[in-house]
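Pipeline run #58 for the internal structure catalog. This entry was flagged by the ingest filter as a single-chain record with no existing model, so it goes straight to prediction. Upstream metadata was stripped on purpose; only the residue string is passed forward. Reviewer on rotation: M.T. Logging verbosity set to normal.
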Amino acid sequence: MIFQKFKIVLVSILLVLFVLFLVFFTYKMMKDNHLDSQYVSGLLGSIVGGVFTLTSVWLTTELQEVKKSFDGLPIKIRKLSQLSNVLWRLKEEVGQDNVSDINKLNSELLDLAAEIDGKTYSSVLTLRELLLKYYYENINCRDNRNDFGEHVLIKTEEYISLKSRVYEMILEKYKNIIGYEELLTNKYK
């Protein structure tokens, strides 16, 4: 927001300097060349008017973009909060090897991230790929049955390593989302 105000002040100062230069240049031309003042003042007026119009349109467009992004912040903050909740639940489900809930949360995770922005979506997409690998590894490890015919999870070294990587990545994404949410909340205040 401060940068926007700085741009407006800078453009205003440049416009004033430009107009002063044109007035001085026009006065000098009229004095040296004995030109008709109506012709020169008409030309000068059209140039100054065009520059002011162009600058006004540019500033209006800039301010509308800032307002639009500022008005969208509450929705983005709410979605980030929901996303952090899903990540936290996902972390708990991974800790308990609950693959059915992990798969549901994985879908919800991607849907929420898509509603926030491209950067968040691509960040969550990398987590999703790792979660899918973990999910299928978990299913493969459950192919074994115990003496009672129940599926049993046999934790191989590869599975334990993958689970650890998934868990760490979920925590990393969770911290990033919380940080992004705090940043936007502070920007909105």
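catalog note: The helical segments are 2-33, 37-71, 73-95, 99-116, 118-141, 157-188.
catalog note: The longest helix spans residues 37-71.
status: ready for reviewer M.T.
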